[in-house]
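Readers of this paper often ask what the protein records in our data store actually look like. Below, we set out a record of this kind in full and without editing:
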Amino acid sequence: MDVLYLFHRYRDDVYRLAVNYTHNPQEAEDVCQTVFLKALEQQALAPGKEKAWLMQVTANECRNLLRSAWWRKTVPLDETMLSSGTQVDETVQALGKLKPEYRVVLYLHYYEQLTSGEIAHLLKIPTSTVTTRLDRGRKKLKKRLEEG
């Protein structure tokens, strides 16, 4: 399959997942670039499995970035500097303040409409862990929304 086609079709999905993982638009762009370069290097992707492959590689690249020594030494930009001037939904803001382990599973479940099993496969964690994170993430999100 043509990588340019995949890029145009799935770039937003890959970017959103990367932003939810890294919580940094610039790092998410770098992850997206790496993901599509890896897609370019692939000889062939299984037909119908392209999105799953791209999301898997995105999750792996984000985890690698977050584990890196360089990432741990950086200081995040102030939230106001990251906003592009568009109005952000209160729920999305509250979701962005959750820990990545909760933020990512909630994003994949509600925005990408993946099942717990699909999320578990994508993130390489047990399904029970996904359901636990979904439950705890919902509770934490609810608490944040009630506070704000």
Observations:
- The longest helix spans residues 127-147.
- Confidence is low (pLDDT under 50) at residues 75-87.
